[in-house]
Amino acid sequence: MEEERSRAGGAAVAVDGESLRRPEEEGGRRKKGGWITFPFMAVSLLAFGLSSAGAMGNLVVYLVKEYHVPSVDAAQISTIVSGCISVAPVAGAIVADAFFGCFPVVAVAMVFSVLALVVFTLTASVRGLRPAACVPGATACEAATAGQMAVLYAGVFLLCVSSAGARFNQATMGADQFDAAADRDVFFNWYFIFFYGSAVLGSTVLVYVQDAVSWELGFGLAATIAAAGLAALLLGARYYRRPAARGSPFTGIARVVVAAARKRKIDVAAAAAAASGDLKFYYGPRSGDGDDDGGKPSDDNNFAPSDSFSFLNRAAVITDGDVDAADAAAPLRPWRVCTVRQVEDLKAVLRILPLWSSSIFLSISIGVQLNFTVLQALAMDRAIGRFHVPAASMVVSSFVAVVVSLGLIDRALLPLWRALTGGRRAPTPLQRIGVGHVLTVLSMAASAAVERRRLATVRAHGEAARDDPAWVSPLPAAWLVLPFALSGAGEAFHFPAQVTLYYQEFPPSLKNTASGMVAMIVALGFYLSTALVDAVRRATAWLPDNMNASRLENLYWLLAVLVAINFGYYLACAKLYKYQNFGK
Hints:
By secondary structure, the protein is mainly α. Among the domains are: about 1-245, Up-down Bundle (Growth Hormone, Chain: A), CATH 1.20.1250.20; about 250-350, no CATH class. The protein has 21 helices and 6 strands. Strands 1-2 form a two-stranded antiparallel ribbon. Helix 5 runs antiparallel to helix 6. It is globular.
C-alpha cells in the first residue's frame, strides 16, 4: 500500500514522513505548501466542524426548552438557518476569489466562529439573556423578549458568516498547497473525512454535554474548540501557499457576454479563418505585463478560440478602436474586446454547468431521506437493551457511513484499482460521481423497502395501530442504517469527486468559487426537497401527519425513479464532456 501511495506522489499523510518533518527545500529557500501544512489544516478543519455542529446540532431543542419557542416555529427557524449556512459559502468563495485570497478569509471566518460560540455561551450562562424557566405544571411559559432573541440571532448570524468564509474555502486553501493532482485527490478525501467526522462528534458528544450536563458547558467547549482551531490555522501561516486574489472573476465573465452581444453581427467563422494570418483575436498584454483579469502572457496564450460556444468568440475579435494602435496588446475598450483566455474561461464554466445541475437531485433525495428517517425512527423500536437511541441520532449513521466509506475508498479501493489496472491513476472524477448516483438510487429503493416493511407491521396489528399516531412498530430502527449506509457511501463517492472536478476544470480565477459550487448544490437540494414534499402533500394523500397511516414508501419509490432518470441525464452529460485539465 505504501508503494502505491508513493507512486501517487507521496500523497498519503502516513507515508509522506519526510514532507511532514520539514518543508521541502528549493534553492536554499523554504518551499511553501506540501504536506507540512496538513496537520495545521486538519486541526482547523476538525475544530470548525465540531464547534459548528455543537451550535447547530441542538438548536431546535435550545429554542424550545430555553427560549420557549413553539416546536414548529423552532423547526422553521432551524430550517432557515441551515439553508443560510449551506448557501453562504458561495458568497465567501466569491470574496476570496475576487479580493483577499483564501487564507485571510478563512482566518477571519474562524474568528467569527469563536465570537459566535462566545455569544451562544453568554446566552446560556447570563440569566437575563433568556426568559425565565418554565414553572412545572404551568399552562404557558414566559416568552423571550425581542432583545433576548436579538442576542441569540446575533450569534446565529456570526455562525453564518463564519460558515461563509471557512466551510469550503478551507477545501480550496488545502488544495492550493499541492502541485500533483494525486495529492489534491487525497486531500479532498481527507477534507470530507474531517467534514463529516467532526459533524458526527459535534452532533453526539457536544450535544450530549448540552443535554446531560449544561448548555453553558456544551457551548463553552465548542467555543474553546473553535479557538484552538483558529490558533492551529495561524501557527501554520508561515508554511502556506497564498495565491493572490485575481480580482472579480465575474467582471471578466460579464465583459465577455457584453462584448459578444455588441459584436453579434461579426462573421466569427471568417475571423477564425483569418486568424492564422493577421492578428484578429485579442490575447492580452505581452509577456511580463499583467492584466487585471488574470490573462496570461501572449506567449502562453497564443491560440485560436475553440469551436464550442462559438458565438462567444466574437468577444475576442479585434475591431477598429478596440486596442491602442501603438500597442496592439493594450485594450482601449475593455467592455468591447476580451482576451481569448477570458472567452475560454467562460466556456469552461458553461461546459460544466450541465454536470453540476445533474447533482442537484442527489441532494434533494438525501434531504428528504434525512428528514423523514427521523419520523420513521420515532415510529420504530429504538431500544438497544435498556438504552433508547434518540430518533435524531439515526441521522448520525449517515455521517458515519460517509467517514467509513471515505476511509475504505482511500485505503482499500484505490490501491486495489491501481493493482488491477497496472498502476494507472485513480478513477476519474466523473466515474466516481457516477458510482455515487447509482448508490443513491439503491439507497432510495432501500428506504422504500424498509418503510414498506414497517407499514406491513402496522397493518398486521389492525386499524387500531394504523389510527394511533403514537403506536410504535416492533420493527427495529436499526433497519434504517441500511439505506443510510448506501447514501453515505454514495456521498463519499460523489461529493469529493465533485470538488475535485470543479477545482481542476474551473478557470484559475474561479478556484474558490469552484469549491463553493458544492455548497450551492447542498443548499438547493435542501430547499428543493422541502418544495418537493410540499408538492407531494398537495397532490397526494401519501404524507398525513400520522406516520402509521402514511404511504411514505411511495415517496421513496418516486425519488428512486427520479434519481434513476437523473442518472441517465448525468451519463449523457458525462459522455459529452471533455476534460480540460484532468491530471494537471
